[in-house]
């Protein structure tokens, strides 16, 4: 059975950059499941699978369609219980929910501001127009002004990682001795930045940097299959 994962990409379709897609790519690899990537632009998403979703990732697994990275993780855990666990029970699910909330309210906004022009410039013209209009409506100001604010985020970004920096002093992964979906959540955010932006958010010698390098090496180096910007 061929699985298809719809993944957000820019002009270079070999460089899918969505943090949520990367969570799912590592989740599928974690379960030992093969899949094909179907790159899509922002404006193509509403037409996928006869309007099945407004967001990616969207996974087709046989006759099953699942969107949203967390819902996909839940589906994989239920559909493939004989494979390595992604959530490791209710405690792991609860931890992942917390990590997702923290990542999307702390890391994602900062990365979005830091990389906003890099994301815009990586898109096809039709998607650039959509991205500019939708993000300027969201932020209430021009993209260039958002990018200017992102310079301050660069200076403070390292401090935002302190919760996982503390945790990684005791164990190699957020999941413990081995990675769980919680690791892939944070990895997805930092991989997004790594792929779309030349700004380097992680410093040498930081335990978070060491953890991120370990995550890049997981599943035969899946994270390294796309080079840094």
Radius of gyration: 17 Å
**Can you identify the CATH class of the domain at 3-79?**
Alpha Beta
Q: Summarize the amount of helix as a percent range.
A: 40-55%
Mean pLDDT: 97
Can you identify the CATH superfamily of the domain at 3-79? Answer: Glutaredoxin
Report strand order across the widest sheet.
Answer: 2-1-3-4
Fill in the CATH topology of the domain at 3-79.
Glutaredoxin
Q: Please name the CATH architecture of the domain at 3-79.
A: 3-Layer(aba) Sandwich
Oligomer: single chain
- Ends distance: 34 Å
Written as H for each helix and E for each strand, in order along the chain, the element string is EHEEEHHHHHHHH
Q: What general outline do the C-alpha atoms trace?
A: globular
Q: Specify the biggest β-sheet.
A: 4 strands, mixed
In short:
This protein is an alpha+beta fold and 229 residues long. The protein is built from nine helices and four strands. The protein has a domain at 3-79: Glutaredoxin (3-Layer(aba) Sandwich).
């Amino acid at each position: 059975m061929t699985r298809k994962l719809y993944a957000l990409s820019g002009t270079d379709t070999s460089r899918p950059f969505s943090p949520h897609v990367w969570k799912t790519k590592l989740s599928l690899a974690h379960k030992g499941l093969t899949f094909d990537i179907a790159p899509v632009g922002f404006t193509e998403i509403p037409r996928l699978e006869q309007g099945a979703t407004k967001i990616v990732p969207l996974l087709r697994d046989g006759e099953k369609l699942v969107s949203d990275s967390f819902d996909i993780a839940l589906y994989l855990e239920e559909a493939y219980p004989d494979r390595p666990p992604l959530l490791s029970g209710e405690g792991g699910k609860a931890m992942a929910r917390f990590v997702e909330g923290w990542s999307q309210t702390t890391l994602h906004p900062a990365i979005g501001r830091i990389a906003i022009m890099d994301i815009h410039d990586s898109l096809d013209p039709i998607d650039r127009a959509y991205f500019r209009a939708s993000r300027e409506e969201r932020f209430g100001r021009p993209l260039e002004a958002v990018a200017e604010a992102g310079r301050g985020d660069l200076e403070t970004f390292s401090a935002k990682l302190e919760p996982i920096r503390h945790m990684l002093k005791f164990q190699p992964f957020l999941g413990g001795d081995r990675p769980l979906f919680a690791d892939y959540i944070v990895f997805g955010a930092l991989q997004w930045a790594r792929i779309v932006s030349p700004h380097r958010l992680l410093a040498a010698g930081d335990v978070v940097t060491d953890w991120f390098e370990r995550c890049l090496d997981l599943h035969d180096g899946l994270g390294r299959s796309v080079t840094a910007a």
